[in-house]
Automatic annotation (TrEMBL):
Residues in Flavodoxin-like fold domain copies: 4-182
Mitochondrion among keywords: no
Gene3D superfamilies assigned to the protein according to its UniProt record, in alphabetical order: 3.40.50.360
Designated name of the protein: Flavodoxin-like fold domain-containing protein
InterPro entries named in the record: Flavodoxin_fold (IPR003680), Flavoprotein-like_sf (IPR029039), NAD(P)H_dehydrogenase_qn (IPR051545)
Species, as recorded: Sulfitobacter pacificus
């Protein structure tokens, strides 16, 4: 098995969470398997989440921590994001990070269009999202048609060129038993060991 450079983003805004435990479990298992790993916790980043402009004609300078996130994505061969699902979407601070970091001229090229869509600029990297929610998987699929997964995969990761994108869902997370969490973390360790 070849080793990879892996960037892990814990997308939970709180200092302690199951999402953070999942991210740290992934990192430990990936490093044990020989992968080179960088880890960033969203709660450690201090930045303005509001891009603040209509369109991209104006430029808002990036805070140093956001420049570091860009550098970690550029460095990585595989990007892993752990996040809870809140109100059917991403936590506001995580969405704000994407609003600020995934910019034209760096993540996508609006000067080169294919069927009206910008050219992705971060090709050559794969990705995985590990999502926790209180919504059971059955309802997530049947009622909501896995809308958040479609957003993460198609409208974020693939939009900027990350392929393939794999998705993992752990639910219901809010009242998960210790045995259930242990099982989930075992799955995370197996995924991380493969660098997937």
């Amino acid at each position: 098995m070849s080793t990879k450079r892996i960037f892990v983003l814990n997308g939970h805004p709180a200092a302690t969470s199951l999402t953070k435990t999942i991210a740290e479990t992934y990192v430990a298992a990936a490093r044990k398997a020989g992968h080179e790993v960088r880890l960033t916790h969203l709660h450690d980043l201090d930045f303005d989440t509001d891009y603040g402009f209509a369109g991209y004609a104006q430029n808002k300078p990036l805070e140093p921590c956001l420049e570091a996130v860009q550098a970690d994505i550029e460095w990585a061969q595989h990007v892993v994001m752990t996040t809870p699902m809140w109100w059917g979407g991403l936590p506001g601070k995580l969405k704000g990070l994407f609003d600020r970091v995934l910019l034209p001229g760096w993540a996508f090229d609006t000067r080169k269009l294919t069927m009206g869509m910008p050219q992705p600029m971060l090709k050559g990297r794969s990705a995985r999202a590990i999502v926790t929610s209180d919504t059971p998987d059955f309802f997530f699929a049947l009622l909501y048609r896995k809308a958040l997964f479609r957003q993460i995969k198609g409208q974020i990761f693939q939009f900027i060129g990350l392929k393939p994108v794999k998705l993992t869902h752990f639910a219901p997370a809010g009242k998960a038993t210790p045995d259930k969490v242990k099982k989930w973390l075992g799955k995370v360790e197996a995924i991380a060991g493969e660098g997937a």
